[in-house]
Write a structure and sequence with these properties.
Length: 286
């Protein structure tokens, strides 16, 4: 039976999420929370559905706001009960586009998404390297200096000039910008020649997973092919090393980003996972 998720379903949903976490090939976009109270809070404002039988929850699926539409959480199921649940969730989209994310190896969920009208947009590959492979090169080139803050205008300029811009950040207010970089789990490392930024690496720490993610690496187009990317990765690793729990640095590249892939190979990163981004178009008149 498919119905809205109840508070009493939280333990079963957490068990499903833990099952998913145990194998990379099961990965889909899912709630961050792995604590009962945090999961219940995270799900309060979303449409969360479960497929249940007499023994408990068989599958979980949810919709939440994302970009210009919605994002699908799941579907997650240990027994393949995804198609009907997915169809029920998609009946609540109000004509908005829906995004979904699944591991490249998660063939059952990918087949269900494609059967429900989702189309693959691109694949994002993730690469990892131990910090001590990168940190020996963590120094500023001659005539440059390291900064851990950038003016919002300089930050925006580097985003605008980069191939993989997150458009939402271009509209951040100064308060949002300051609030983001005031977070304990976020760090910025920039290289400047004089007062001119040539690039930056933005980090997000995941000490519980013993890693730091490079959430953004930007080098101004006019400054590329001069080794700044390698330097910024090394500086990011040195910054990550300030957290004793962190052992590895992770980076990402979409399938069309050949220069980034070549950079990561030169730096000594190895491939660790791939995620396929899907989208189901909304109604044009919405």
């Amino acid at each position: 039976m498919i119905r809205p998720m109840l508070a009493t379903d939280v333990p079963d949903v957490l068990a499903l999420l833990t099952w998913m976490d145990d194998a990379p090939e099961r990965e889909v976009f899912s709630p961050d929370a792995r604590d009962p109270r945090e999961l219940q809070t995270e799900c309060e404002d979303n449409l969360c559905l479960v497929d249940v039988d007499d023994e408990g929850v068989l599958a979980y699926c949810a919709l939440s706001p994302f970009r210009d539409g919605l994002v699908l959480e799941g579907p997650v199921s240990d027994g393949g009960h995804v198609q009907a649940l997915l169809g029920r969730a998609l009946a609540h989209t109000d004509g908005l586009p829906v995004y979904a994310f699944a591991a490249q190896e998660n063939l059952p969920v990918r087949a269900a998404l494609e059967g429900a009208g989702f189309a693959a947009m691109h694949t994002t590959d993730f690469y990892s390297a131990p910090l001590d492979r990168l940190t020996p090169h963590a120094c500023a080139p001659a005539g440059h200096r390291i900064a851990r803050r950038l003016p919002i205008a300089a930050y925006r300029e580097l985003f605008k000039s980069s191939e993989d811009a997150w458009a939402g950040r271009l509209t951040w207010t100064p308060e949002q910008f300051d609030g983001h970089f005031a977070r304990d789990d976020v760090r910025l490392v920039a290289l400047l020649r004089g007062d001119q930024p040539v690039g930056f690496a933005e980090l997000e720490f995941r000490p519980e997973e013993a890693r730091a993610n490079v959430t953004y690496l930007a080098v101004h187009p006019a400054e590329r092919a001069q080794g700044y990317g390698l330097k910024l990765l090394a500086l990011a690793a040195a910054e990550a090393e300030t957290h004793p729990e962190v052992r590895t640095l992770r980076v990402r590249a979409h399938d069309h980003m050949k220069p980034a892939r070549a950079l990561y190979a030169r730096a000594g990163f190895t491939h660790c996972r791939s995620i396929v981004t899907y989208m189901r178009d909304g109604d044009e008149d919405v």
